[in-house]
Amino acid sequence: MAKRKSNRSSDAAKRPAKLLTRIAIVLLIIVIILLVIYLIRPDLFNRAFDQFNDYKPPATGELPEGDVTEITSAELSIHFIAPEVRASGDCTLIKVGETEVLIDAGPTQGNASAIKDYLEDYCTDGVIEYVIATHADSDHIAGLVGTSSGGSYNGILYSYQIGTIIQFNQTNKDDETASGNPTLYGRYLTAVEYARDNGADVYTALDCYNSQNGAQSTYYLDDEHKISMNILYNYYYENASSDENNYSVCMLLSQEVSAEQTNHYLFTGDLEEDGEERLVQNNDLPEVELYKAGHHGSKTSSNDCLLEVIKPKNVVVCCCAGYNEYDAAEENIFPTQAFIDRIDGYTQNVYVTIMDDGENNTFAPMNGDIVFYYKTAEGEEEAGLRLWCSQNTAVLKDTDWFKANRTSEEWGWSQSDKESFAVQQ
Ligand SMILES: [Ca+2]
Predict the structure, then answer these.
(1) What is the model's pTM?
(2) How far is the CA of 122 from the centre of ligand 1 (A)?
(3) How far does the centroid of ligand 1 lie from the alpha carbon of residue 121, in Å?
(4) Cα of 237 to ligand 1 centre, how many Å?
(5) What residue spans define the domains of the chain?
(6) Which run of H or E residues covers position 158?
(7) CA of 412 to the centre of ligand 1 (A)
(8) What is the pLDDT of residues 187-217, one digit of tens each?
(9) pLDDT tens-digit profile of 327-356?
(10) Coil, helix or strand for 34?
């Protein structure tokens, strides 16, 4: 009896051990199955994780904390900062690690504080390593100066330590008015001197292109020398033009993403058609992932001569869509029909910062702040260029503004579509 009792208690002791072994075997089999699926179809896992990452844009223009982290942890981010004023103008931030490049700060002196609010999340070391002032028009340089209070200005050049300024080589503007007061251009010159006194190197784009006076044609933005900022040759750096826009500093940003692939991003300021023709003749331009539409989507920029070479995959227009701030003629209102007729053969991925709200005499966001960022951190499978917008990620052709105001046969929106849409509204 004693023996049987002992056997029974020994069996009871073995039961949980057996159960644990079975659970371990089942778990092992599940792990092996998942591992096999991952090896055969990694996309299924990525898709599952993407659902968790499915980002819903906020209703306001505020950047939520989590997305700042997501963007700043990217290898490279390119931000088109939406103006907080009813006007078209450029302000582009490029960020690689702690290195920032700010191209222009438009459109107005008063918008400088909004730009600084945006930069607060991204330039956290107080140093903007490079500032490019493309040309002397106010919608590009005004925020570099800012507004004055008690004699001191609050613009970008006064608010940050600036590493290097790369500026236009020429302008047709005077630095003083007839009565001897400084113009905005005059105040810009003072701001540049302020930055120079505080340690900034100041070069013209021509200095850079020729690698003269201490300037370089190529600046690497990362330690590994995979991301380079290349100052292109623009004929109008050293030849006169009646059009200020043609003096624009032109820059190609190149990112080596693998041994086989380099991504390119092109910035041409407000360069006009004759400038674009010469840009194509004088530089060996590649096809680009991203092109900042020249001159806010004007009919005089983004011409076929340039587009047929760069074949842009994504286009950002920094403008107040529909606002007739310069010219009431419909054909001149940004982004123009002529621009759309040329760009629509290359891509549908066209994004616009803000739009006019004429009824309320103000403006509204369109995509808002537009950020393209390249991420490899989560592995090669997910590597690629991503888009984040503070308002929404709708492409231009899908917006009500486009449907009511523009047409594109390429994008499947005819004149009669536009007319019937207008009747419905
Ligand atoms: Ca910095």
Answers:
(1) 0.85
(2) 9
(3) 12
(4) 28
(5) 14-42, 71-394
(6) helix 156-159
(7) 44
(8) 999 999 999 999 999 999 999 999 999 999 9
(9) 789 999 999 999 999 999 999 999 999 999
(10) helix
